[in-house]
Amino acid sequence: MTNPSLLILPGDGIGPEVMAEVRKIIDWFGAKRGIVFDVSEDLVGGAAYDLHGTPLHDDTMAKAQAADAVLLGAVGGPKYDVLDFSVKPERGLLRLRKEMDLFSNLRPAQCFDALADFSSLKKDVVAGLDIMIVRELTSGVYFGEPRGIFKEGNERVGINTQRYTESEIARVARSAFELAMRRDKKLCSMEKANVMESGILWREVVTEVGKDYPEVELSHMYADAGAMQLTRWPKQFDVIVTDNLFGDLLSDLAAMLTGSLGMLPSASLGAPMANGRPKALYEPVHGSAPDIAGQGKANPIACILSFAMALRYSFDQGEEAARLEAAIEKVLADGARTADLMGPDGGTPVSTSGMGDAILAA
Ligand code: ATP
Ligand code: MG
């Protein structure tokens, strides 16, 4: 039997720093729990541009297609701002998402008890919060045609088109129902069927797919009402499925219920591969954070939690993922804080590697 394969793309800025902590944890799983990955590492973003003149080499793209999962750090940085759009670091990430056809973007909003004071909301509203937003990632208003800035009479008009086919809605709906089955069996679909045809179709198709999941309690909500409910009482939700644009807004909103950017993982999933698991790219929500890069200040938890998602969704190791999350919970409860998790009078922060070591020890 061959070991499951994991392609690691540390990228730019704090990407390599936080990924180094994940590497320690991967090694620990091999040494202590006998869970061995076939790990390879490659370049993406500015790091790839510096060596190859392109933010994603074709060989790297091929490796990503062949891997059981890809774990990415972050791309970009001020050094690359002057580059032509076609070779910008972000284009490397966009190419991965596009060619792997990753249509389902999972953004958990999970509040560790020790950090509940960090939320902008009251503690009892967020303590213990654990919800998942599934955002459609490859279609909708970001891609629909016609699009552009056109001349209309003697003024210009900017046009974007919200467009969804039944199959595009059905596949993301299915991935959300599958997720709900593994969690609390509750799914809320959000659109604006009151004012948008794509929303009417969205609601119809999600309802139809739901017939295959009679155990899942399905509800529908207009996305604006959803935004309101997410801030009023977010614990009423388990899994939320929504389109590309609403998902962009709602997942950022939900994320900030829980505190720092340094804590937020994500997964982007595509169609099932031969092994039955979806094509998958895992990455922290944060960017390359050039303001703190190279200083050992970055919080590695978002990237470590992204690896936990990989354990759960790509490698059938849900219990090991929960064990890793519990270690993070414990370290936070014991008081370890990177600088991003501290108030102005917080005391002495731990470094990136200090946090990684504490999680390993726990
Ligand atoms: P991008 O365009 O790549 O998404 P961005 O402009 O949204 O980048 P980030 O790079 O995510 O920004 O950083 C935003 C702020 O959050 C910065 O001040 C950064 O230092 C901080 N930050 C981001 N990630 C972390 C982290 N892992 N640990 C600590 N601070 C972080
Ligand atoms: Mg950003």
Automatic annotation (TrEMBL):
<dbReference type="GO" id="GO:0009098">
    <property type="term" value="P:L-leucine biosynthetic process"/>
</dbReference>
<dbReference type="InterPro" id="IPR024084">
    <property type="entry name" value="IsoPropMal-DH-like_dom"/>
</dbReference>
<comment type="subunit">
    <text>Homodimer.</text>
</comment>
<keyword id="KW-0028">Amino-acid biosynthesis</keyword>
<dbReference type="InterPro" id="IPR019818">
    <property type="entry name" value="IsoCit/isopropylmalate_DH_CS"/>
</dbReference>
<keyword id="KW-0460">Magnesium</keyword>
<feature type="binding site">
    <location>
        <position position="107"/>
    </location>
    <ligand>
        <name>substrate</name>
    </ligand>
</feature>
<feature type="binding site">
    <location>
        <position position="252"/>
    </location>
    <ligand>
        <name>Mg(2+)</name>
    </ligand>
</feature>
<keyword id="KW-0560">Oxidoreductase</keyword>
<dbReference type="GO" id="GO:0051287">
    <property type="term" value="F:NAD binding"/>
</dbReference>
<keyword id="KW-0520">NAD</keyword>
<feature type="site" description="Important for catalysis">
    <location>
        <position position="192"/>
    </location>
</feature>
<comment type="similarity">
    <text>Belongs to the isocitrate and isopropylmalate dehydrogenases family. LeuB type 1 subfamily.</text>
</comment>
<keyword id="KW-0963">Cytoplasm</keyword>
<dbReference type="GO" id="GO:0003862">
    <property type="term" value="F:3-isopropylmalate dehydrogenase activity"/>
</dbReference>
<keyword id="KW-0479">Metal-binding</keyword>
<feature type="binding site">
    <location>
        <position position="224"/>
    </location>
    <ligand>
        <name>substrate</name>
    </ligand>
</feature>
<dbReference type="InterPro" id="IPR004429">
    <property type="entry name" value="Isopropylmalate_DH"/>
</dbReference>
<keyword id="KW-0464">Manganese</keyword>
<comment type="function">
    <text>Catalyzes the oxidation of 3-carboxy-2-hydroxy-4-methylpentanoate (3-isopropylmalate) to 3-carboxy-4-methyl-2-oxopentanoate. The product decarboxylates to 4-methyl-2 oxopentanoate.</text>
</comment>
<comment type="pathway">
    <text>Amino-acid biosynthesis; L-leucine biosynthesis; L-leucine from 3-methyl-2-oxobutanoate: step 3/4.</text>
</comment>
<feature type="binding site">
    <location>
        <position position="135"/>
    </location>
    <ligand>
        <name>substrate</name>
    </ligand>
</feature>
<dbReference type="Pfam" id="PF00180">
    <property type="entry name" value="Iso_dh"/>
</dbReference>
<dbReference type="GO" id="GO:0000287">
    <property type="term" value="F:magnesium ion binding"/>
</dbReference>
<feature type="binding site">
    <location>
        <begin position="77"/>
        <end position="90"/>
    </location>
    <ligand>
        <name>NAD(+)</name>
    </ligand>
</feature>
<feature type="binding site">
    <location>
        <position position="97"/>
    </location>
    <ligand>
        <name>substrate</name>
    </ligand>
</feature>
<feature type="site" description="Important for catalysis">
    <location>
        <position position="142"/>
    </location>
</feature>
<feature type="binding site">
    <location>
        <begin position="287"/>
        <end position="299"/>
    </location>
    <ligand>
        <name>NAD(+)</name>
    </ligand>
</feature>
<dbReference type="GO" id="GO:0005829">
    <property type="term" value="C:cytosol"/>
</dbReference>
<feature type="domain" description="Isopropylmalate dehydrogenase-like">
    <location>
        <begin position="5"/>
        <end position="359"/>
    </location>
</feature>
<keyword id="KW-0100">Branched-chain amino acid biosynthesis</keyword>
<feature type="binding site">
    <location>
        <position position="248"/>
    </location>
    <ligand>
        <name>Mg(2+)</name>
    </ligand>
</feature>
<feature type="binding site">
    <location>
        <position position="224"/>
    </location>
    <ligand>
        <name>Mg(2+)</name>
    </ligand>
</feature>
<keyword id="KW-0432">Leucine biosynthesis</keyword>
<protein>
    <recommendedName>
        <fullName>3-isopropylmalate dehydrogenase</fullName>
        <ecNumber>1.1.1.85</ecNumber>
    </recommendedName>
</protein>
